[in-house]
Amino acid sequence: MPTTTLGGAGSSAVANAEEGEVPGTAPADPRPGSEGSLARLWAERDQLQLEMAQLRAEVARLEGAIERMGSLASATDAQQLVLGLTELARVTTRAPVAMFVPAEPAGTAGASLSYDPGYLAEEPEPARVPLLAGALWRVTPLRLDDVTEWDSDRAFYGRLADGRPLRSWVGAPVRSRYGDALGVLFIAHPEPAAFSQREEDMAQSLAEHLGGTLDNLSLFQERARVAGALQQTLLPPVLPDVPGLEIAARYRPAKALAQVGGDFYDLFEVRPGVWALLLGDVCGIGPEAAALTGVARYATRAIATQESSPGRVLLQLNDTLFRFDLQDRFCTAIYAELRPEAGKIHVRMANGGHPYPFLLRADGQLHEVVTHGTLLGLVPEISVEEQEVVLGPGDIMVAYTDGIVEARDPDGNMFASEGVAAVLPRCAGGHAASVARRIELAVLEHQAGGTPDDMAIIVLQNTSEEHQRARPRRRHRGA
Q1: DSSP assignment, residue 26?
Q2: What is the CATH number of domain 236-468?
Q3: Which of the chain's termini has less CB crowding within 10 Å, N or C?
Q4: pTM to 2 decimals?
Q5: CA end-to-end span of the chain, whole Å?
Q6: Residue 22: count of CB within 10 angstroms of its CB
Q7: What is the spatial distance between Cα 303 and Cα 314, in angstroms, rounded to a whole number?
Q8: Cα separations in angstroms, 311 against 260, 334, 351, 372
Q9: pLDDT in tens, 409-465
Q10: Topology agreement, domain 75-227 and domain 236-468
Q11: What are the extents of the domains in the chain?
Q12: What 3-state DSSP class applies to 282?
């Protein structure tokens, strides 16, 4: 293939260009053997390589900023979020100093300051500078190209190690979705007129992102506090002391941060010497399901004082729930009366569409307590069965909600009642608390740690013989 040459040395430049170097635009009057022409080619090549390197660095910087933005979007700690956005503002605007100043020192997040180690000898205090503090009350960003033209004192602007002040400033107000002032995101530079409209727009964009995210985080934390308080009203704070009986409960909501769900349990003395046990599950999760669990729990307490039949208690509970017009919502429940007598625990129960409990005898025999019944709240007329079982010394009864049996592994296989049946024989001889915990751990391992549905477990163990030997009873409520 013919090759155009530029004098004796020019052929080397063209050859280098064919090997990947960009020679740039040829001189206007390339004369063979001209040293000036060759020098210009090398200079243009060097300039293009420098610009390419700068572009690559800019791409890498922006890619890093995008990755940082994505990780900050999932932050659940306000201070971590502010620190990350402040550093991001410094990186994206190429400002040597960036900082966030909160509107209130005791607000959701505190102040943050980002700069390279050793860069500043004196940190800036924008809140003490009227020119900068006014940015808090603005709607649009504040930009000062040279603070020395406005403030001869130059105090509190910050100072570099060589004594120079920070002269260029952009202050972008950070506001909530309702317009409340949350603070100001500042960027600063020691050179005058260091920032253009690009940096101002970038700072404002990051400030808007910070404001919206802080707002959402505050709402999320408030919702978690409310949900936690609501959940505490749905579970008994301390399980009562039943003679000859060790009781353990484990509860895990589907959304751990919300701490509220549709599973519930209760244990209370309904008559002298008789205790009532309620374990239920409202269809769904979250606050809506939790509100209905409160209705079911407190309605059952009221009904139980008037009825001595577990079956009739569930019939009246169904009537109460049906009057709420739940539409596609429903409730399953087990209600039982516990009566200790002569070293035994008599358990008379009724089942409203709930998973069947298991009975683990002291000798290791395992039985599923099959008690049929219709789920509650969907139809006005239901049918329920009653059944009585007797817990002898060392016997254990385990009841649970459908979050246990419907837990799925990554392949979609359910834990099922067979999973519970596989765990219980290994629990023979253990205490009620350890049995409840082992079932919970087995379910979490089965579904790889996730909790897509609420889970509740109640374990009753007859300890009458040990009780007679003055063995302290254990009462457990799960976390």
Answers
A1: P
A2: 3.60.40.10
A3: N
A4: 0.58
A5: 80
A6: 13
A7: 9
A8: 28, 10, 8, 11
A9: 988 999 999 999 999 999 888 899 999 999 999 999 998 866 677 889 999 999 986
A10: no
A11: 75-227, 236-468
A12: strand
